[in-house]
Amino acid sequence: MIQVKNLIKVLERNKINFFTGVPDSILKGISNYLEKYPHKKHVIATNEGAAISMGIGNYLSTKKIPCIYLQNSGLSNAINPLISIASKDVYSIPLFLIIGWRGSPKKPDEPQHKAKGKITLNLLKLLKIDYCILRNEKDLKKIKKLILKSKKNKSIVACLIEKDTLEIFKKNKEKTNGNLFRSDFIKNFISLIPNKSKVISTTGYTSRELMELRKKFNLNKGKDFYMVGGMGHASSVAAGYALNSKKQVYCLDGDGSILMHLGSLRTAGYLKNNNFKHIILNNNSHESVGGQPTNAKGINFRQLSYSVGYKKYFQITNLIGIQGNIKKFIKSKGPSLLEVRIRNGSLKNLSRPKNLTKIKEKFMVN
Ligand SMILES: Cc1ncc(C[n+]2csc(CCOP(=O)(O)OP(=O)(O)O)c2C)c(N)n1
Fold it and tell me: What is the dihedral of CA 302, 303, 304, 305, to 10 degrees?
């Protein structure tokens, strides 16, 4: 195991003192540890490309190497600014990446992570990013060498961390946001939607709870497409589907996921498909990967949705009258947004979507 504080100490000793990134389950100890740092030293970004770019901006103003942490699935979001701005062939900007390596061939993982895990090292090689793998405290010695290389060559370097390598660094318990759980809403929702609905659900606990609740309570209205990867793209998949269908299309989204690619809301807004219904399960946190804040708190989703072209906005904050409120949303002419304010807390022992091609085929049947 590697202690988070020892890892951060090594980086700080080597003059890295700005951290930015997108939370990841493997790296949750890092973001929890950094939560007490002020914004000048730590920023949670909305997507990995934005995190890389924050780091680039920080380097331009401080001349110091920034640290950017991300899950390997987010490497694809990061590649654009990495290769088109920071690479040696463009502006040659030194960056230090910490990558949570889901799906490393040494660790069993989910299908979407296996696919990305297998190609992660090759991606880094293609991008000409020097890297090391951190498996224990001794490996921390490799970091100094990498940072010196980055400084000297003005290049991007990275370290990879696999599952169960970093110690769990507990964060302070946050104040709860009301008393409605995600599962309370989902259970009511899938018992009320029309039979032929299509439900596209976002990455993390939302898809897992949706699948679990259907099984547990035998709720079979509508068909689901679980976005096990492609975080932030559920609403675009839903909007793409809605364009060519007369069915009611529901997107079950999260606040972290919506913020990752917020521009998609405008696309759904100007497309004006009245069968497109968007739900945001807003807990102001990345609960599925450790509960780090998303900073969704303070966003006025009513104003936001109307200004990007949605026709109706609804809000649910508790169980009282929940069925009536869901029915109003279901009846509305879209595009409409339903913001459901939920507290953190998920069902225990959730299984994961497994036979994905079967799920797709079932979803595609009319
Ligand atoms: C591109 C990408 N970056 C990071 C992750 C890791 N990740 C999985 S779920 C999740 C949090 C999602 O937050 P939110 O949408 O608010 O849903 P919640 O977890 O609160 O249910 C993150 C960051 C990912 N899967 N893909």
Answer: 50
CATH (domain of 186): 3.40.50.970
Task: Tokens 């303070």: give the residue.
Answer: 298
218 & 257 share domain: yes
Number of domains in the chain: 2
Closest ligand 1 atom to residue 25 Cα is 6
> What pTM does this model have?
0.97
Kindly tell me if the per-residue pLDDT of 216 is higher than 80: yes
Q: Residue 210 belongs to what domain range?
A: 182-364
Question: Rounded distance, CA 356 to CA 88, Å?
Answer: 39
Q: Please tell me the predicted confidence (pLDDT) of residue 176.
A: 67
* Dihedral of alpha carbons 37, 145, 164, 98, sign: positive
**DSSP state letters, 34-70:** HTTS-TTTEEE-SSHHHHHHHHHHHHHHH-S--EEEE
Backbone angles phi, psi at 225, to 5 degrees: -125, 110
pLDDT (average), residues 56-72: 98
Q: Measuring from each residue's beta carbon to the nearest atom of ligand 1, which residues come in under 6 Å?
A: 22-24, 71, 73-74, 77, 202-206, 231, 254-257, 283, 285-289, 294
Ligand 1, atom 9: closest residue by C-alpha: 204
CA of 67 to the centre of ligand 1 (A): 20
DSSP string, 196-240: T-EEEE-TTHHHHHHHHHHHHHT--SSEEEE-SSSTT-HHHHHHH
What are the pLDDT digits (tens) for 162-183?
Answer: 999 999 877 766 666 789 999 9
**What pLDDT is stored for residue 364 in this prediction?**
97
| Final residue of a structural domain among 161, 196, 218 | 161
